Amino acid sequence: MDEIVRHRAFMRSNFAALRRTLTDQARGLPQPPLQLPHDPRAEVLPLPPADRAVIRKNDLYACLQERRSRRQFSDHPLSKAELSFLLWATQGVQEIIKDGYATLRPVPSAGARHPFETYLLVSRVEGLEPGLYRYLPLSHQLLLRRRDRELDPALVRAACDQGFLAEAAVVFFWSCVPYRGEWRYHLAAHKVMLLDAGHLCQNLYLACEALDCATCAVAAYDQERMDELLGLDGQDEYVVYLAPVGRRR
Q1: Is residue 38 assigned to a domain?
Q2: DSSP for residue 124
Q3: Which CATH number do you get for residue 106?
Q4: CA 242 to CA 132: how far, in whole Å?
Q5: How many other C-beta atoms can be found within 10 angstroms of the C-beta atom of residue 112?
Q6: How many C-alpha atoms does 29 have within 13 Å on its Cβ side?
């Protein structure tokens, strides 16, 4: 019970203590980049602009009323336009403000830090080869990490044998780059970054509902295996959330 009580403290606000803390932002240290850099020689693929024309359900009340976690997917692929809309709804950049200090996006984030990177394991998306990609929100493009048709078994093992993940057209992974939040909020960053992850995934749920697609948030996974699957170091970047997406069966 003592261990449970100690862990409860993580959920409580420590922003009063932040006033007495000299953060890296207050020290005048440079902020981390809004997007992780990548090898300029890597293959970068364009996405169509996010377009409301892909929306099948324009009624917000209906989307909220009918939103559910769905774990069954059909074999039909998603279109690239639909994937583009889902990426825009969750991490798309609408505007870069204050000389590159922050971005405005459809999803809220504490201090506009947006500490996440989005990875995609693509199985059935029209116009995209199966494989692992990273979303580049500043340019609304996809960075090809590796072509691979055999990642599903490793994904299921890393996700504690949740086999339905292998049936999705695409799996969204959100990694956290913790220093983006720590630079501004120091020890208070970790609570608000996890709150931000909830905002982000709820946007995916509602966007999927609008497209008549299925999704299900997943937080149960083997941390080391999942980070290894995506090629992350597990310290300065690590997976915090994932969600499969596909057509409803």
Answers
A1: no
A2: S
A3: 3.40.109.10
A4: 14
A5: 15
A6: 13
Say which DSSP state 172 is in: E
Residue 120, in any domain of the structure: yes
Place of tokens 């709820």: 202
What CA–CA distance (Å, rounded) separates 246 from 25? 41
Domain assignment present for residue 54? The answer is: yes
Q: Do 109 and 115 touch, CB atoms closer than 8 A? A: yes
CA-nearest of 172, 170, 158, 154 to 217 is 172
Domain span at 233: 2-33+46-247
Number of domain units in the chain: 1
CA separation, residue 195 to residues 99, 190, 202 (Å) = 26, 9, 11
Residue 110 lies in a domain: yes
Each residue's pLDDT expressed in tens, for the chain with a length of 249 residues: 789 988 888 888 888 888 888 999 999 999 999 999 999 999 999 999 999 999 999 999 999 999 999 999 999 999 999 999 999 999 999 999 999 999 999 999 999 999 999 999 999 999 999 999 999 999 999 999 999 888 899 999 999 999 999 999 999 999 999 999 999 999 999 999 999 999 999 999 999 999 999 999 999 999 999 999 999 999 999 999 999 999 998
